[in-house]
Amino acid sequence: MENIIEFERVNVDFPLRGGTVQAVRDVTLRIPKGKVTALVGESGSGKSTLASTLLRMVSAPGVISANGIRVDGKDVLQMSEKALRQYRWSDVSMVFQAAQNSLNPVVTIGEQITETYRAHKKDATEREIEQRATELLEYVKLEPQRMMRAYPHELSGGMKQRVMIAFSLLLEPKVVILDEPTTALDVITQDYIFSILEKINRELGITLLLLSHDIAVVAKVADYLGVMYAGKVVEFDDIHAIFEHPKHPYTAGLLKAVPSLIHDLDQIKPIPGASPNLLKLPFGCPFHPRCELAMSACKTIEPELVPTEEGYRPACHLYDPDKEEAATIK
Length: 330
Known about the structure:
The protein is α/β, with parallel strands linked by helices.
């Protein structure tokens, strides 16, 4: 399958007085073109930071180092500032977490759309901008005439989220990143948002990269799922394969922690312990202090996510490369 995003040994470090936070650690990953891929993990796992490297927008004092970060063949790290400004929104756009905070509270939605469009297409006419805005607002099921005159405070959380999704599509990007796209929204609005995202992917062919702490939320729309822990991708596979046969103990733990409408609450089993301190990661596998299946090797050697002909071998010592199939966590 053709890939649109290629991470090659990506690292993001934040030098601080007390040491260096390794937010992303040596990530090598391929994201399929035209599909919906989700990255999940607890807060601080590195998913938002990794996605931000696609726009070279890691917050200071973060430092990106990598062998390459390519989007549709273009290496983001090699772009000039001028090329980078044109690339953002045109090739890759992002709907940030708490997207409603991205809207200027004292400017109408119409003015903000016009400003964004003209920043990239200076010769655009008023009619061209109005037509594009109307098309996109209708696409996300909003009333264009009302939205163009409205201020952000006049809209509900779900409406603001849909406005930001319309913004992300403004310049017909190849990739749209959505960071926690349904946080703080009720379940009905969440479902509505995801139906729009499915439509965008299916009808426009845009690659979507969803970032979430909730593995159950993204299950409805994702084709592929990557699980991150302590700055690394520990498992990556087809969404159905992961839900049916999780290989990494952390992935299995996330699934067991999800509440179910058909099972008893006593079957819910939270992952013991807390996320590791990124300033002082444990030796070996960072998950081993919380893992019920940890072996002696887990305490000294950190396993890696390994590309294979079928996809990726999970970053776990339970997987025996000499066997035809990976171990399945019960």
